[in-house]
């Protein structure tokens, strides 16, 4: 008898099955609503991240009200006369970039008849960044060292403003005044030119970002 009763055990009532069904269906909207909630929140989070991490665009750098135009030049090249040919290549490269960098080249841009000290100081003060092309000629030239000291005095702790570039100089000859700054070692000219360009771009982006945040 007990075996027959086991075989004919009644199925769950319709009430129980309906409760189970309603329970399972009610859990699904909550999960979908939570996923919808998370999906609705994720765009705003990703948007926030993109706003914070997005670099200043080229149009922002070139805008008429940009902090870039507060100075006459973007880059001042400090170099020895014996390295003029290499410097002219660097200036040509920078000025042909999409940013159209404004470079100060002493033999080209210095006013005829003006005092050398005045021109060197004005070039440093009126430029955002200073490229120090450190070569054996640079180390022998007192005017190069003078301009280097002027740049360090102008902005001793400004990241990216003073850009040391070593060429044909041993590391132990690296000027002690610049020991707290990383330098670019010019092995392949094209790579070094690109590194200089990227450093100047980063500084101008940070300059414009700071300026925009102050005005908001």
From TrEMBL:
GO terms for biological process: positive regulation of canonical NF-kappaB signal transduction; positive regulation of chemokine (C-X-C motif) ligand 2 production; positive regulation of tumor necrosis factor production; toll-like receptor 4 signaling pathway. It comes from the Eukaryota. Residues 1-11 have a biased composition (Basic residues). This is Toll/interleukin-1 receptor domain-containing adapter protein. It comes from Eurypyga helias (Sunbittern). GO terms for cellular component: cytoplasm; plasma membrane. InterPro entries: TIR_dom (IPR000157), Tol-interleuk_rcpt_adapt_Tirap (IPR017279), Toll_tir_struct_dom_sf (IPR035897). Residues 1-48 are annotated as: Disordered. Pfam families: TIR_2.
